[in-house]
Amino acid sequence: MFTLQELDFITENDLSNLEQTITNVAIDGRKISDKGLYIPIKGSNNDGHGFLHQAINNGAVASLWEIGTEIPTKVPKNFTFLFVNSTYKAFHQIATYYREKINPIVIGVTGSNGKTTSKDILYTLLSPTYPTHKTEGNLNNHYGVPLTLLSMPIDTKIAVIEMGMSGLGEIEELSLLAKPDYAVITNIGESHLLQLNTRENIAKAKLEITAGLKDKTQLYYDGNEALLKGTTGNPIKFGTDLHDIKLNSQTRNNNVSFDFYEETYELPIMGDHHAKNASYAISIAKKLGISTEQIKKELFNIQVTGMRMEPSIGINNSLLLNDAYNASPVSMRGAIKTICDLSGYTNKILILGDMLELGINEVELHKSVVSSIDDSISYVFCIGENSKWIFEEIKETLPNLNAYYTLSSTEIVKEIRPLLTENTVVMAKASRGLHLDKIIQRLQQ
Predict the structure, then answer these.
(1) What is the rounded CA–CA span in Å between residue 63 and residue 25?
(2) Quick one: CATH architecture of 103-301?
(3) pLDDT, position 357
(4) 8 Å CB contact between 233 and 261
(5) Could you give phi then psi for residue 321, rounded to 5 degrees?
(6) Geometric angle at alpha carbon 81, from 77 and 85, rounded to 5°
(7) Using an 8 Å Cβ cutoff, are 265 and 282 in contact?
(8) Residue 256 and residue 269: Cα distance in Å, rounded?
């Protein structure tokens, strides 16, 4: 990766003779390995300086160290401390330095929903041609983005960096850190309304991705979103009556087929909304020289990060769909619509749980998802304190639908097990804190 000598710009130490190679960087002493640089961060609950020995035992050969912090005893004599005023700021400085040293083409991806899937599709299309690095899991915040940059192999040509946020100013910081060559805003939803109060503020926060964007015309965004109207870049519109993306509704089921600028593409994942996620990736892949033929071929190799409509076989060969990683009104309506449109199953069961961090309009936003439920749905099981509003709206507007409300996952499993046949599909959707994936696990064959 780099030598300690290269880090003389962050510290007053004399590093002129330190040719020690650093092969990995970590802010968690448990995750560092041989020849690692440990970066202790002072957090609200823990101070990473207290875990230095753990990092040393796992292979750290050097550590950043905030000036004024007491140095532990029994540190190996050949261990190096790099003294800085702020380990957090130095952490970001090192990540910026390494990003510029490797100098890949950086693609930044943000949005209320779909950013992880868009990231995964981009990686799928680009990695067969270029050495490509991407955000792993959900490392998309002010700690995850610098760690992702610092974990790039030396031969990386393209880096696909996911950027998340919980408030204003956060994506701007990440964009200035990563300096994207291309950027994507998948959509503007209702996530983080608790912190930001309005969708206008959410749009403002997502647009911060342009802060470090080298060329503002290389922004790809949701052209259907009125809050992004007038934004410089490449708006992509979605729908049967619009010009950019047209769905081929006859080929639903387990795949999504769509026309994008007079070419037909097919995705081996469920959900019409993924057509737009794919279109961002297709547009950028073409800019980077990937042919239409190769794009069509590679789309079938996509491996989406777990708990995003993740299929598994349930009891009696039923189909279970785990979409329980997170949820907002937009993503829940999209997931419900996907099940409504799914052919080949006569018994369709929804497990719907709380959507968190929705702010003062959480009652109305929970109730709004019921509008996506049609008469193809056989049962709806609502779980969690807030999901009672979904249940109440079903009883008010769809009185003939079999709907149940409970706080017990055990009760839901007990009720659903007898309903499972080879003609049954079950989809679970809620915010991560509800842990609906555990219900899916208990229904698996």
Answers:
(1) 9
(2) 3-Layer(aba) Sandwich (3.40)
(3) 86
(4) no
(5) -120, 110
(6) 155
(7) yes
(8) 7
Answer CATH for 2-85 from 1.10.10.10, 3.30.360.10, 1.20.1250.20, 3.40.1390.10: 3.40.1390.10
CATH homologous superfamily for 310-443?
Mur ligase, C-terminal domain (3.90.190.20)
Least Cα distance to 70 among 46, 91, 47, 39 occurs for 47
Distance CA 94, CA 86 (A): 12
pLDDT tens for residues 139-164?
999 999 999 999 999 999 999 999 99
Q: Terminus-to-terminus CA distance in the chain, angstroms?
A: 45
Enumerate the domain spans of the chain: 2-85, 103-301, 310-443
**11 and 83 in contact (C-beta within 8 Å)?**
yes
The amino acid present at 435, given as its one-letter code, is H
Taking residues 87-111, report their average pLDDT: 97
Q: Tell me phi and psi for residue 160, to 5 degrees.
A: -105, 110
Q: Look at residue 191 in the predicted model and tell me its pLDDT.
A: 77
Q: What is the pTM for the complete model shown?
A: 0.86
How far apart CA 215 and CA 89 sit, in angstroms, is 26
pLDDT by residue (tens digit) across 25-70?
999 999 999 999 999 999 888 899 999 999 999 999 999 999 999 9
Residue 241 has pLDDT above 70, yes or no: no
Query: Cβ atoms within 10 A of the Cβ of 414, count?
Result: 12
